[in-house]
Structure formats: structure tokens, C-alpha cells
Amino acid sequence: MANDQLEVLNALDVAKTQWYHFTAIVIAGMGFFTDAYDLFCISLVTKLLGRIYYQKHGAAEPGSLPHNVSAAVNGVAFCGTLTGQLFFGWLGDKLGRKRVYGMVLMVMVICSIASGLSFGREPKAVISTLCFFRFWLGFGIGGDYPLSATIMSEYANKKTRGAFIAAVFAMQGFGILAGGTVAIIVSATFKARFPAPSYEADPATSIFPEADYVWRIILMFGAIPALMTYYWRAKMPETARYTALVAKNAKQAAADMSKVLQVEVEAEQGRTEQGGNDFGLFSKEFLRRHGLHLLGTTSTWFLLDIAFYSQNLFQKDIFSAIGWIPKAKTMSALEEVFKIARAQTLIALCSTVPGYWFTVAFIDRIGRFSIQIMGFFFMTVFMFALAIPYQHWTLKENRVGFVVMYSLTFFFANFGPNATTFVVPAEIFPARLRSTCHGISAAWGKAGAMIGAFGFQYAEKGIGVRNSLIILGVVNLLGLLFTFLVPESKGRSLEDLSGEGEQENAAPSGSRQQENGTAPV
């Protein structure tokens, strides 16, 4: 590796934390804010969709989405996300991070707006349109995972890199919070404007035609934060690591970085030589160096998301089961939206958001490995503590205890593997495969999320909540074991981690000594 190439990257590694680093966190983080908002707000409106479009005349209970429709509405965005992670991950290594970054955002904006529109009024038409656009919304969101992580890791210095990548990811917490808050405001506004009795008092008037606007407004709101950051994303320069290591243009990398960061770098030559370190993803060399790493990042993310998403998407069912949310027929349609949103926002505020920021605060002190082991360990403990005496938790006097335990599993998911599985793949792979490998790891995560989202729905009906929680406890235990395949990346440079610095380090000792002004012995 040419020396000037390393000089640019070295300057980045030791650069002081500057204003631009925080700007980058916000620009990349707003993508994640939108991602979380879009992926989680659907769980706030599924009951409302059931009441509007699947109401049976004269039924004792309000309408609800049939199982297959509910699974499709909840899960179709995950299918899109998985495809987007693989496709845009690969594209980010081929075309460069910056060029693909704006593209991803526009897909998210257009599909957020479109998912609130419908072709036709029939339930089939409405749900088909919703599923179609949510698939493509997921596709855009999928691209944001590898690109945001890679961009942040390539901009950061090695001392605070973990905290910066985790801070981008932590914006998800605010996205979930915003989803709940928007749902509360919209449903409360409509409820005040159009008062309605509970379903059991009067089924016909418990839902009014204007309620159809509520879910559309909630879904479309996701376009606003994404649209706000488009201009700033377009202005971001390509990362120096991509320009120097993949495009092989150290001069350009130095020029780009000195525009945004206060680092003085002189790169003499315009283009750097192609190194011999150019093995591909499917080569034996990659398998030898990074095969176990990739297995570690994919398996831990996969196992975590099975547990994380089944917990998250089905909070509302668990709240109903323990009586935190009253029976559907005792509420009007909008009252139900309001109460589900309020419960989810409370959980997010008390456990999800603090968990993310605990990771940001401690990841560069404790290290990724320790946080991930600790998180999986406590998630396993709390899952079994919820599952084994499950009958005890369903009693009215123990409900608060159940919610506290449930919140703690969330806290340790976020101050634990939910953040670290996102951070590590952006650090340990070579620059020309970094975005691709992050996309592959994230896609395995989404495969786990789909098992969580679809599987839990059927498992709960088939084997009950208690057995489902036991299975999730076992899944977390497996996650803990697979963590041992992932290396610790705290405080090390990206080139050191990926082996890209090896060639420079392996330069003949003679040439090194001559550079230092000493003659070879």
C-alpha cells in the first residue's frame, strides 16, 4: 500500500473529534430515524386497519386483520429491507458510498408518501397497495443500513468510532418514539374532533369515515425527516477510505477530507498503485481471513433479530394479554390506536432510548465484545424469568412487574447486541467489501426479523406466549455463544482490523530503514 495512501487514513484515525463528525451523525442518523419510524409505525395502525376494512356486521368483537393479511402487512417491509441491504450494500462498494446514499433516501421518501395512498376502496385494493409500497419502502431502508454504518465508520477517528456508529444507530430509538408520539397526536386530534362511543355501546358509530385518514397520515409522516436531510446527503463528499483504498486516488481523498475536516494531509501522487490485497468475497483468501468473522456477524444479528422483532412488533398483544390495554370492544377505534401508541411510547422512553445511548457512552470504554456478551446474557435471563413463572405475571397485582422485566429485556437488547451487531460489521472487513459484508450481515438480521415477525404470530396462537418466550430465551443463549466468533475492534484502525495495513507493514526492512534515513545493516 502506498505510503501517501496510509497517510490520509492515518490522519483520519488520529483526527480530533470535530463539528463535522456530529453533522455526519445527524445526516446518517436521520435515515435511521426514518427507518425505525417506518418499520415500527405499522404495528400502531394494524388494529385500526382491521376495524376499517374487515368489520363483520353484527359481530361481537370489532374487525381485525385476518392472520395472513396481518403477517403480510407487518412483514412485507422486512422482505424489501433484506433485498435492499444486499443490493445497495453491493452497490455501495461498486459505485461509492456517496452516489448510492442519495438514491436510497429518495426511494424512502417516495414510498413513505405512496404507502399512505390507495388504488381503490376495497380492502383487497387498499392492503395490496399498502403492501406493494411498503416492500419498496423497505428496499430503500435496507440500503441505509450498510451505507450509513460504512460512511460513519470511514469518517470517524479510531478512538471514538464505536460511539459515532452507535449514535447513528441510536437515532432509531427517537424514530420509534416519534412513531408513537405522532400516532398519539393524530389519534387524539381526530378523537376530539369526532367523538365516538366504544364498540360494545354502538358498533356502527365506534368508527367514523374520517378514521381512514388517521393511519394514512401516520404512515406518510415518515417522509418528512428523510426529505429534510436530502440536501445535506447530496453535499457530503465521498469517504476518504473509499477514494484512497478502492478508487485508488489518494490525492482526491486528501482534498475531500481537508474540505470537511481540519486535517492537514499532503498526498504527492494522484493515483496510488493497485495493491496485491485484492481478493474477492468468494475467494479462499477471504474465507481464510474473514470467513469466521462473517459467520459471527451474520449469526449474531440473525439470532438477535428473531428475539428483538418478535418482542417489538407484538408488544401490543402482550399488553392486551396482561390487561394493560383494555379489550378491543370496550374502546372506540381511535381510543385503541391512542392506547397502543401510549404503551409503546412509554416502553421506548423508559428502556429502548436509554439502552441505545448507554451503548454510545460505553462502547469505546468497555468494547463491543463485552457489551454484546452482557446484552445477550441478560436478555436470556429476563426471557426465562418472564416465561417460567408466566402465570404469576398474568395476575393483576403482578402486571407492573411484568412490564418492568419486559422493559429490561429491551434495555439490554439496545445496550447490547442490537447496537453492537450494527457497529462491528462496519469495522472488521476490507474497504472494498465493507458495505457488501455489512449488507450481508444486516440481511441475515432481517431474515431473523421475519422469523420473529411471522413466526411469533403463529407460535403464539399454536404454543402460547409462555412457550414462545422460552424459545426466545434459547435463541438469545445461542446468540451469546456465536458472539465468540467476532473480534474486538475497540481502539484499532480499520486497516489494521481488515488486514489492509499489512502490506505496508510488510514492506522490506531495507526500504523502511532507508525512509527513516538509516542504512540497512
TrEMBL record:
Residue intervals of the Major facilitator superfamily (MFS) profile domain: 24-491
Subcellular location: Membrane
Keywords per UniProt: Membrane, Phosphate transport, Symport, Transmembrane, Transmembrane helix, Transport
Membrane topology: Multi-pass membrane protein
Transmembrane segments: 20-46, 100-119, 163-190, 213-232, 346-363, 369-388, 400-417, 468-486
InterPro entries, sorted: MFS_dom, MFS_sugar_transport-like, MFS_trans_sf, Phos_permease
Transport in keyword set: yes
Superkingdom of the organism of origin: Eukaryota
Biased composition (Polar residues): 506-521
Stored Gene3D superfamilies: MFS general substrate transporter like domains
Residue ranges, annotated region (Disordered): 494-521
One Gene Ontology term of the molecular function aspect: symporter activity
Any one annotated GO CC term: membrane
GO biological process, one term: arbuscular mycorrhizal association
Family membership: Belongs to the major facilitator superfamily. Phosphate:H(+) symporter (TC 2.A.1.9) family.
Protein name per Swiss-Prot or TrEMBL: Major facilitator superfamily (MFS) profile domain-containing protein
